[in-house]
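Hey, I was hoping to borrow your eyes for a little while. No rush at all, and the record is pasted right below:
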Amino acid sequence: MKCVLLGGGGFLGSHLADALLAEGREVRIFDRPGVRPYRAFRAEEPVEWIEGDFLDPGQVDLAVADCDAVYHLVSTTLPGSSNLDFAWDVQTNVVGTLHLLEAVRRRGVGRFVLVSSGGTVYGIPRTIPIPEDHPTDPICSYGIGKLAIEKYLELHHRLHGLDYRVLRLANPFGERQRVATAQGAVTIFLDHALRGEEIEIWGDGSVVRDYFHVSDAASALARALTHEGSHRVFNVGSGHGLSLVEVIEAIEALLGTRVRRRHLPPRPFDVPASVLRIDRAREHLDWSPRVSFAEGLARTARWLRGTGESEG
C-alpha cells in the first residue's frame, strides 16, 4: 500500500513513517517548505519527500494522487493558540481539511486516518477514564475543530463511502519532539531540567494528563491502516494519568537532581484531568502501549543529550 502522510516530517509523522516503512509500505511524506528530512533514508526504502502548502488545494490534490491511504497529521494551531483567532483556526484546519477530503474523493483514496485529540474533544470529563462515547463538549477552538473534522469524515462516509478511522490521541512524547514549539509538557520539562533551567507550571501542578511514548502512538496509527471492524473512532493513550507534579518528580528521579519550579496562573482551556479509556483499541486494533512512562522518559533524555537539543 502507498500511504501519503500530510505532516509526515514532524514529530509524530516521522515516527509513523518509520513504522510504515518497517512494515514494507510505500510512503510519501508531504510537509511545508523548509522542513528538513528527519534522517537520511536508505536507497532501498520506498519513500518520497515532497514540499507543499496544506492550504493550497492544488498541491494537496497532487500529494494524494495515486495513493491508497491518507494520514492527516496537519494542524496549524495548538489548543492555546487556537483561541486567539477562531476564524484562522477554522479556515486553516477545518476548511483546509474539506479541500483535502474533496481531493481524496476525486482521487479515489481507499483509507483515511485522522489524528484527532483525545485531550480536547471531550471537554471537562464526566468520568475518568474517558470512553469514546463520552459527551463531546470542547472548551477550546482546537477541540471544536478536530470534532468538526470528525463529523465531516462521517458525512463523507455516508455520502461518498469514505473508509476512515479516527484516532483520538492522548499526549504523546518522545524523541524528535520540538521543544521550541512549546508543545509537550514532558519533553519541555525534561529539556529544561537537563539544561538546569527553571520549569514553568501552569497552575498548581495538579492537572492530570495521559502521557505515552510516541512509538506507541505510531504503532496504533499503523494498525488503523488495515483495521476492518465496525468501529471507526479509537482512543489511544496509556490509560493512566500523571499530574504535572508527578511528571517533574519522575524527571528528578531519572536525573538524580532537584528541579527548580515556578508556578504561573492556570490556563482557562486546561481541563482538570484527561485520561483516556483504551479498551476499544486493545480489543479491536489489537494494540496496547508497550513503553512505560519511565522508559519513554529515559529514551527522550538520551535523545535530547545525544542530539545536542539539551546540554547536560
